[in-house]
Amino acid sequence: MYGFLLFLPEVSANCSTGYTMAYSHWPPYHYADKAGNPLGLDVEILTAVFEKEGCAYGMRFVPWKRALYEVKHGTLDVALAASKNAERSEYAWFTKPHRRETMVMFMRAGEEPKYSPKSMSDLAETNYNIGLVLGVWYGEDLSALFRRKPSFRRRVLQKLENKNLFDLLIRGRVDVVVSDFFNGVFMTDQYGMLSQIMVRPEIINDNENHFMFSKKSASEEEVEHFSRAILAFQETEKYQALLLKYIPKEYLRKSLQK
Fold it and tell me: For the whole model, what pTM was predicted?
């Protein structure tokens, strides 16, 4: 239902004969419009880089947890906007980062918070019921907390989509949804929930995001080439314009360290 293919007439020696890429519902970074075409900041960055490098590619909509599985097994070549960790590094190469991801807490509007946690470890010490998206990276300490604190694990509800979690938050089934700041604001506004939601200022996790390539279908040299292309693109006015198209200037974080 979702997706499009773009084939370029000539393929550069810098890339293979073509790449199959996955995007999912993580606005404003990657998502589908009403016609099923991919949109978003990550989609536009990747499109600009691949077209400049003369690389053929196709995109299809794949839920995030499934995309990780397919990259691992080589049925997908590239996944958008992945955090780098040890488990994923066993089966994937990562480009240089193309943006940051800042995780914050979303709570019900009009309720006075009982706690002000500043990390996932702090959040585990509260009695909040917590909503997380299945397969999303929330920092190094989450898996360790799951192992050390079974009581914390029982308070965590994981769903495939943030939309479901925000529904549960409004209904009182969870007390906190942890999400990327811009993703959470975009989605709650899109679904008419923004007035019922409070965004807390504490940053629970802050990390860099990368394009992730399957080791089964891409070489390390190819990925290094794309990293150089991404770094060059980040120096252009077009890249800065793209950031401002999706992220308000007053919220735009400092430039990525290169």
Answer: 0.80
**Domain spans in the chain, listed from the N-terminal domain onward:** 4-100+207-251, 102-206
* Domain 4-100+207-251, CATH class in plain words: alpha beta
Torsion sign over Cα 19, 25, 256, 252: positive
At 109-164, the pLDDT tens digits run: 998 888 888 888 999 999 999 999 988 888 888 888 988 898 999 999 999 888 89
| Tokens describing residue 42 | 């990550």
Fold that domain 102-206 belongs to in CATH? D-Maltodextrin-Binding Protein; domain 2 (3.40.190)
